[in-house]
């Protein structure tokens, strides 16, 4: 059976940034199970799985656009220290998890500390990077037989 949209797929993989850093891996003995096309993986990864079968191995590159998007200067913002959680260590390079006024969970990295504010980058840490992937397909089945 080939991987199609809504197939249940078990894979093991390695994901490597364009700087050569290992970003994520499952290991051969603890495969990741997903419903293909459900958005559990970045779009370029899910597309690369389409048509593969159990036992297939594939190496591919996911463009930044099809991974975590391009880096956006609009997501680098000056943020008042008053809006930061009170227990945050405000130092350059520190990563902060916070909520927007609408309740959306956000993660940002402090780029620069100023007197009453910080320059914070709200881009995904892998934004702007192409990703290299090695994947092994362990199992493919219809969603109905899950």
Overview of the molecule:
- The protein has 146 residues and is mainly beta.
- It has 2 domains: 8-68 and 127-145, Roll (Chitinase A, domain 3), CATH 3.10.50.40; 73-121, Thrombin, subunit H, CATH 2.40.10.
- Helices cover 5% and strands 40% of the residues.
- The protein has one helix spanning 43-49; strands at 8-17, 22-25, 32-35, 57-62, 76-80, 95-99, 105-113, 117-121, 131-141.
- Strands 1, 2, 3, 4 and 9 form a 5-stranded antiparallel beta sheet that branches.
- The radius of gyration is 19 Å and the shape is elongated.
Topology:
Elements: E1 8-17, E2 22-25, E3 32-35, H1 43-49, E4 57-62, E5 76-80, E6 95-99, E7 105-113, E8 117-121, E9 131-141
Antiparallel strand pairs: 1-2, 1-3, 1-9, 4-9, 5-8, 6-7, 7-8
